[in-house]
Amino acid sequence: MKSIHLLPTEFEQQLRLQLAPQIKAGFPSPADDYTHDSLDFNRDMIRHPEATFYGRVSGDSMIDAGINDGDIAVIDRSLQPADGDIIVAYINNEFTIKFLDLTHQQEGYIELRPANPKYQPIRITDIDQFEVWGVVVWTIKGWKHG
Predict the structure, then answer these.
(1) Is 115 exposed, middle or buried (0-12, 13-18, 19+ CB in 10 A)?
(2) 61 flagged as catalytic
(3) What pLDDT is attached to residue 2?
(4) What was the pLDDT predicted at 43?
(5) pTM, entire model
(6) Hey, where are the domains in the chain?
(7) Is 9 left (phi over 0), alpha (psi -120 to 50) or beta?
(8) Which CATH superfamily includes the segment(s) 4-140?
(9) Which parts of the chain sit beneath pLDDT 70?
């Protein structure tokens, strides 16, 4: 079930990258020769630095949600998880990344749902050691390595 490796965050330095003009996914348009703004991952992606961690995803249980092996999940531990959120859960001494399904709470269980039909949901009951470790707020993909 291990599907995420947690990494510490560094917020002491700014990481300012130039933000390109709007990029359209339809027909190409003439490119602007200038940038409009800058993006700082720490400023623009992280709302609660003291409670935010990165996790490297391992496995294919979330591929239909666009989360692939090797992607980096940005996890905010200060957020209250809601039904349908993608979460990092600590269950029976292992971490996993799944959708949180609270629709069965009145029946005495919740489910962690994968985004790949090869895998079954994980049913969580009172006998399980379970904690929502954090809510995934962003994912970062690598398209070209090396």
Answers:
(1) middle
(2) yes
(3) 46
(4) 76
(5) 0.77
(6) 4-140
(7) beta
(8) Umud Fragment, subunit A (2.10.109.10)
(9) 1-39, 145-146
